[in-house]
Design goal:
Blueprint (H helix, E strand, L loop, with lengths): L4 E7 L4 H12 L6 E7 L5 H8 L5 E5 L6 H11 L4 E4 L5 E2 L3 H11 L5 E10 L3 E3 L5 H7 L12 E3 H6 L11 H10 L6 E13 L6 H21 L6 H11 L7 H21 L4 H21 L18 H15 L1
Parallel strand pairs: 1-2, 1-4, 2-3, 6-9
Antiparallel strand pairs: 4-8, 5-9, 6-7, 6-8
Length: 334
């Protein structure tokens, strides 16, 4: 019987304990009509470990002849997949047993949604639960600052990927953010995040090197610039430098920087009011929340730049946030 859901799991020299838990979490799902496509990206011994450890017909194991990287490996997985739905899974994370059944039921019920992620629970070096915007326009609004969708938590509709020939761009280390923002340009492409936690997302010291982190940050900045340009706006190099720093939560932004960022955010809101690409309330909600978060960070760290809130037209869109900053600044800087 043809599988309904294809799970794509790249692996490269993964800790074998983590790898086993990741695979087990998929083959022990409550939903059974699946294929698990595992692609070893030319590891030392991942292929041998998996082939010797599992005898499950739902597992389709492949090995790249050379190291292709995540994006190319995922594209190979998309070519192999035969399911109506595509699930991403990392080789060091753990899926909740009902992850696939819940996301599948969600997409079957909500026919206008093309991709759904989920809330996550951090494991390893970081703990806690993280939730993300659920409405498509709020997610599209969040793309101005980064990605509010955790890559290994997603389920796609395969037919939508085929319809628009959607593939990962191997030129970007932030391949997920780049792909999401391209999908956001498709008029009838909609996103969501399942409210409940469906994935245990592992943080560990061997995930990425400092050099790779810097590359991901640089590539994310390029994706952000393209998203802003596709929205019909042009920020100069200095403005983008400030906007990128703001988006990443840079603690070194000063009073004047916040004034500049506030004006840039206002440009985004004004442009949207003219062209109505995103629901107005959703966009304002995300922008005001992000700005408040960064002002609050400054308030807690006792950095004087928080006083620039007084000149912010954006913060004034939310009276509660504005009042909180007004009271907080009085107590912190009196």
């Amino acid at each position: 019987m043809k599988p309904v859901v294809s799970i794509i799991m790249p692996t490269y020299n993964t800790n074998k304990e983590y790898l086993k838990k990741a695979i087990d979490s998929i083959i022990n799902q409550t939903y059974d009509f699946i294929e698990l496509i595992i692609i070893d990206d030319c590891s030392v011994d991942d292929y041998e470990f998996i082939s010797k450890s599992y005898n499950d017909k739902r597992i389709k194991l492949f090995r790249n002849d050379m190291n292709l990287g995540v994006a190319r490996t995922l594209n190979r997985g998309l070519e192999i997949a035969t399911g109506d739905y595509i699930v991403r899974m990392d080789s060091d994370d753990i899926a909740y047993r009902n992850r696939i059944s819940r996301q599948l039921a969600f997409l079957q019920k909500n026919q206008s949604i093309d991709m759904v992620g989920s809330s996550i629970r951090y494991i390893g070096k970081k703990r806690g639960i993280k939730r993300f915007p659920r409405e498509s326009d709020e997610i599209k609004s969040s793309f101005f600052f980064g990605t509010p969708i955790v890559h290994p938590s997603v389920m796609f509709r395969a037919d939508k990927l085929k319809q628009y020939n959607i593939r990962y761009n191997p030129n970007f280390k932030s391949e997920d953010y780049e792909l999401w923002t391209r999908c956001a340009q498709i008029k009838d492409f909609n996103f969501s995040n399942y409210s409940k936690v469906l994935l245990k997302y592992r943080i560990h010291t061997t995930q990425v090197t400092k050099q790779t982190k810097n590359t991901i940050r640089e590539h994310s900045n390029l994706v952000r610039l393209k998203y802003i340009q596709d929205f019909g706006l042009q920020f100069n190099n200095e403005e983008m430098k400030k906007f990128n720093a703001f988006s990443s939560g840079d603690s070194n932004l000063n009073y004047d920087d916040f004034i500049i960022v506030d004006k840039l955010l206002k440009k985004i809101i004004d442009k949207n009011n003219q062209e109505k690409r995103i629901d107005r309330k959703s966009l304002e909600k995300i922008i005001v929340k992000k700005l408040f978060k960064e002002y609050l960070r400054k308030l807690i760290s006792l950095k004087g730049s928080v006083k620039s809130y007084k000149h912010s037209e954006i913060i004034k869109l939310n009276r509660i946030y504005y009042f909180f900053l007004k009271v907080g600044s009085v107590f912190c800087y009196r």
